[in-house]
Each structure stands twice: as C-alpha cells, then as structure tokens.
Amino acid sequence: MNRSAREAALAIFSEVMNRRRPFEAVLSALDGLEPRDAAFARAIAHEALKRIGQLDDLVRTCVPKPIPRHKAGPALEILFLGACELLFLNVAPHAAVDGANRLAAGDAKAIHFKPLINAVLRRLTREGKAMIANQDAPRLNTPDWLWQRWCDFYGEETARTIATAHLGIAPLDIVAMSAPPAGGEAVFGSVRRFTPQRIEAMDGFAEGRWWVQDAAAYLPARLFGEVRDKRVLDLCAAPGGKSAELAANGARVVAVEKDETRLARLQENLARLHLSAEILCADVRDLTIEPAPCVLLDAPCSATGTIRRHPELPWIKGASDVTLCAAAASELFDKAAELTAPGGTLVFAVCSLEAEEGPEQVNAFLARHPDFARTPLAESDVFGHEEWIAGGDLRTLPCHLAEQGGMDGFYAARLRRKL
C-alpha cells in the first residue's frame, strides 16, 4: 500500500525530533506522493515543528502523566500532528481525528494508545481554540536556551517580537536579472511572493531569469559598493546566491566551497543563470591564492536567523552548537584577513541572531588584527533602513519588514585593511 500524506508527515516529524535531523534532510519521505499529498505532508510537519511548544503544552494539559515512549511508539508524535491539523491547519475535525487514529492503528505500539489519542483530539476539537487563546505562543515555541539569550542581548520586548515573527509564513524573495515571474510585490532588490509554489515550475526558472535569495541575504554583498570588474572572493560560497549577485553586477568572482555536494549545487545554479565564476573546491583555511580587493566570508553558523524557514533549528541545536560554530568561524575569519589585499574590504556575515557569532566575533577579530578597522554602514548601504544598522554593522531581525512578511536575521560587518 502506498504511503499516505500523514504517514509521510509522521516520518518527517519523528526523524527531526527523535534523531535531531534537519527538516530538509528528511524530505525523501515525500518521494512517491502525488504533489498535492506531498504539499499536505510537508505543511503538517513544518507547522508542527513551528508550534511544537504550544502542541506540547496542549497535550500536557490533556494528559498530565507522561506517555511512556518505550511502550507508546510514535503515539505522542501522532497526537502532536493531529492537534496541529485541528488547531493550526484548520483541517476538518473528523478528517484530522480519523487520520490520527489510522496512524495509531498502523503501529504495533501506538495502537494500544489509540483510545487516548482519540479522546485527546476530540477534547481539543471542543476546547482547543479556547486553550490556544490563553497560551503565550512566542514563549512556548522558543526553547529556554534561545529565549534567555535573546532576552539578555536584545531585551525581552524584542525577543518576544522575534519569536512572534517566527510563527509567520516566510515569503519567497526572487532576485531577477530580467523579467521576474508575474505577481508579488517589490522589496528593494527583489520581488516578494507569498503563494506557495514549486520553484522549479515557476515561469523563468529554467531559463535562468532569476534566483531565490532572502531580502536579508541580499544585503551583505551590497556592502562592497560598486564591484564591476573587481576581483571578489566569495568564501563558503554555496549555494551561490551571493556569488550570483556579485557576478550579475559585473564582479570577477572566485567562489570557494569545500563541500563537493554543495559545490555541485553552486555550479548548477550559476550555469542555469548563465553567470560565470572561477570555482574552487577547497577548505578556505588551506587556500594559497592571490589576495583580493574584496573578500566576502558568509561564515557557517547556527543559522538562528533562519528559524522562520527552518523551525526545527531551536529543537535540534543548543548553546554548545553556537560555541562550536563561533570557534570554527574565527579560524575562517583569520584566513579571510590574509586573503584581503592591503586597502581592501572584508565583509563578514552570518545568518545568526547570536552575539558570539556576530558582533562579539568581529570585536575579537579586530583585537587580533590591528591592521583592520570597521567601516561603519550608512543608511544608503541598506536602502535607507536605519533600523537595520547597529553599532555601525548590519543587523536585520525576523521582525523587520513585518508588514511585508519579515526577513531573515542577518549580521554583517564591513572591515577595511589598512594600506
């Protein structure tokens, strides 16, 4: 029997929560499903991950005694997904409850908890909306380790605004070299779309007329100013959005990426866009090439600025991951300094909200490298948005551009090497 959409959603959700795997890495569970069923399965799993704190609170309210996992199998996950369908996706109650019961009936352990699952979901059908109205959604859906960090660094009011933004639907930002697909609204360098659609099926994708790049991710490469005919090193370049942006603006791009799989994706993207770049498969730390006047290091990080698109991140990562990422980025940062020519510009960027990976990283770098100095950003660097500048650096938050759908959290600093 073919796998159903709900079975696929359960497989994805369970892999993420129990094995701490990234959402995008387990979407093979959708293979074989009709497009409509695959979209439904993805929506269930994605929304459940986004609302995991609220769902856990609802289930605990209905079932105060913990469900023994060794006896129950995926019963708890089935409850979460059923509750998500009922209360956040507005699936008809009879369909959501029946779907959960069928999932339980198909598992040798969960079948023994079918009466409990049925009873809880029927209660939530009656009382769930009222229960949700009394929940503190931003706080519940943010794990303690992140909530406290954000409160300490940004203040509780901003932390709450960030967490609220994570509950929205992230739009699709399209950077077009020629005519973008019809529809959407202009957001400085891109066109913003809100209607879910397979990217590969959209008008102009196959012809290479545009690429997808979040509004915040579009900003760091702009900090170089005019790049036409300049040699620019794009370090840790995959999947290639910034390389494409630089090449489209006339730069002579050298894109460096050590991961062969990600490198292949970068090459495919540039080829589709009919853009050229010198591509090197190498660890940045081992590079022995001529320094360049422009160097962009979009360093690997905890990626907490992308939670709107990757809601599993808060639950599969922890504070130790931030520490490890910051240490690795520090090594890459030092190498990027060597690769920056005297008088040249080094832009350091991360899609993280964490202080250690952003401003603290840059301050430590400047203490180690007195031959570099911060070049503070001006409003003209960020399309006039003064609120995106903090301490002279770029700092976007998911709650920025709120009325237009938000944006990723990004940090970037522009540094100049002395002559």
Task: Briefly characterize the structure.
This protein folds into three domains: 131 residues, N-utilizing Substance Protein B Homolog, Chain A (Orthogonal Bundle); 39 residues, no CATH class; 203 residues, Vaccinia Virus protein VP39 (Rossmann fold, 3-Layer(aba) Sandwich).
Write the layout of secondary structure elements.
Layout: H1 5-19, H2 35-50, H3 52-62, H4 69-72, H5 75-87, H6 93-105, H7 114-133, H8 137-140, H9 144-154, H10 156-165, E1 172-176, E2 185-187, E3 190-193, E4 210-212, E5 231-235, H11 241-248, E6 252-257, H12 260-272, E7 278-281, E8 292-298, H13 313-316, H14 319-338, E9 340-350, H15 359-368, E10 372-374, E11 389-390, E12 393-396, E13 410-417
Parallel strand pairs: 5-6, 5-8, 6-7, 8-9
Antiparallel strand pairs: 1-3, 1-4, 2-3, 9-13, 10-13, 11-12, 12-13
Helix pairs in contact: 1-2, 2-5, 3-5, 3-7, 5-6, 5-7, 6-7, 9-10
Describe the structure.
This protein is an alpha/beta fold and 419 residues long. It has three domains: 5-135, N-utilizing Substance Protein B Homolog, Chain A; 172-210, no CATH class; 215-417, Rossmann fold (3-Layer(aba) Sandwich). 41% of the residues lie in helices and 16% in strands. The chain contains 15 helices and 13 strands. The strands form two sheets. Strands 5, 6, 7, 8, 9, 10, 11, 12 and 13 form a nine-stranded mixed sheet that branches. Strands 2-3-1-4 form a four-stranded antiparallel sheet, with helices on one face. α2 crosses α5 (75-87), α5 crosses α7 (114-133) and α9 crosses α10 (156-165). The protein is globular, with a radius of gyration of 23 Å. The model has no long low-confidence stretch (mean pLDDT 94).
